[in-house]
Design a protein that fits this description.
By secondary structure, this protein is an alpha/beta fold. It is 32% helix and 20% strand. The chain contains six helices and five strands; from the N terminus they run E-H-E-H-H-E-H-E-H-E-H. Strand 4, helix 5 and strand 5 form a beta-alpha-beta unit. It is globular, with a radius of gyration of 15 Å. Bound molecules: [cytidine-5'-phosphate] glycerylphosphoric acid ester.
């Protein structure tokens, strides 16, 4: 059982995300996605349109994803690799060579997959002229 792990915000889920997840799953048998919490997004300087609960629920519906866990700090990655017995950490090529992932090579394989050109959450927001969401209207109903 080859276990794959990837990280991301996964806001406004789009085909670039899906293509990354599909290829990540093809590298093993079990795919774990560590999705940035709203608090960690603030540390990353990002404001997601959907809150963590909504982004987690959407990812859990993707056929390639076997488990979704929270990404709360930059520093948790080595512990994640150990705790979940991860064989491969996969990221899009915009992260290629980044020390945060290169440091994992002592613990697991690290693979960067080509980003899907022409799509991004920022592009979607810009083209739909989305403002920062008002509180509460973008959350899933209880
Ligand atoms: N991605 C992609 N093609 C796109 C857009 C995104 O392959 N057109 C990939 C990114 O490279 C990343 C994943 O999809 O591997 C998730 O993208 P984001 O949600 O933008 O993740 P990011 O904000 O880069 O967070 O600790 C790492 C961070 O949490 C990564």
């Amino acid at each position: 059982m080859k276990r794959v792990l990837t990280y991301g915000t996964y806001d406004l889920l789009h085909y670039g995300h899906i293509r990354l997840l599909k290829r990540a799953k093809e590298l093993g048998d079990y795919l774990i996605v560590a999705i940035s919490t709203d608090e960690f997004n603030a540390i990353k300087g990002k404001t997601a349109y959907h809150d963590y609960r909504t982004r987690k629920e959407m990812l859990e519906a993707v056929r390639y994803v076997d488990l979704v866990i929270p990404e709360e700090t930059w520093e948790q990655k080595i512990n994640d690799v150990k705790q979940y017995c991860v064989d491969v950490v996969v990221m899009g090529s915009d992260w290629a060579g980044n020390e945060k992932f290169e440091a994992l090579r002592d613990y697991c394989e690290v693979v960067y997959l080509d980003r899907t050109e022409g799509i991004s959450t920022t592009k979607i927001k810009k083209e739909l002229n989305l403002k920062t969401p008002q509180k509460g209207i973008n959350q899933l109903p209880e």
